[in-house]
Amino acid sequence: MNSVEIYDLVKTFGSFVAVDHVSLVVKKGEIFGFLGPNGAGKSTTIRMLCGLLTPTSGKAFVNGFDVAVQPEEIRRTIGYMSQKFSLYDDLTVEENIDFFTGIYGVPKARRAERKNYVLEMSNLTERRGAMTRTLSGGWKQRLALGCAILHEPPVLFLDEPTSGVDPLARGAFWHLIHDLSEAGHTIFVSTHYMDEAEYCHRLALMYKGKVIALGTPAELKAGLTGYTLLNLETNDPLETMRALEGLPGVHDVAVFGGGLHITVDAGDEMVARVRERLAGAGIAVRKLERIQPSMEDVFVAMIEAEERKAA
Fold first, then answer.
1. Does one domain contain both 74 and 95?
2. How far apart are CA 155 and CA 164, in angstroms?
3. Are 180 and 25 in contact (CB under 8 A)?
4. What is the pTM of this model?
5. Whole-angstrom Cα distance, residue 119 to residue 172?
6. Tally of domains within the chain
7. CB 143, CB 120: distance < 8 Å
């Protein structure tokens, strides 16, 4: 059974097309990642799926309900968490949980059990009386996730949930997401952190309102056929980028950490060609090696391809 089905979904605001004919399917129990830069249309799509925005055209179904005509039914069967955490800072941890159990209509007979579950899951049992505003971003994130699943929704939408949270807290949060998936929840999560794509079962790469790639992380990496990725470290990255500009066979040069990632035509001769160009420009090469692409490399390459098509 599919938890989410989207067919040719469009959302416009005046002349601006925020979501441009998106189609995809999310299976039950899947962690589905919505990957892309800010402004790509991820949040607008999620708001339509949550019944908060009406599509301009196309169809979408969540838990079998039509987002355009059954938004109330959808809101009763989903959990939603945004990057702003949706918590009340002037309430204690426990008061926030009590508030959301009422909002989500958790049966009175189960409220104590669900409250204890959230406190334990978020590791906040000892801080149940603390004011929410005193919590760090990572703890607020856990509490917000717990409040979003108080009513045990089959589908959970997480819209940029790790934005502004430190890397250690992000890692812990993804462990919780995997636990929820293994328990049978479907997780639809958007992010602009490329490393988080590796945690998803499948993902869609979104750019300028369109889905430009869809598949597992391994499938998307394998899709870079005909190209080789090189890791390059030199004494002057900026001059290196200028030197490689226009070199035949070089498709993209991107800053990555303290070095550069270069997408080139497949073949042994490209390594020699890059070395020769840099030597001619008087640039010392510290390291030049073939590497496996990361999701960031995949996304950069696909955006470049989209820009070339548009041009």
1. yes
2. 24
3. no
4. 0.84
5. 16
6. 2
7. no
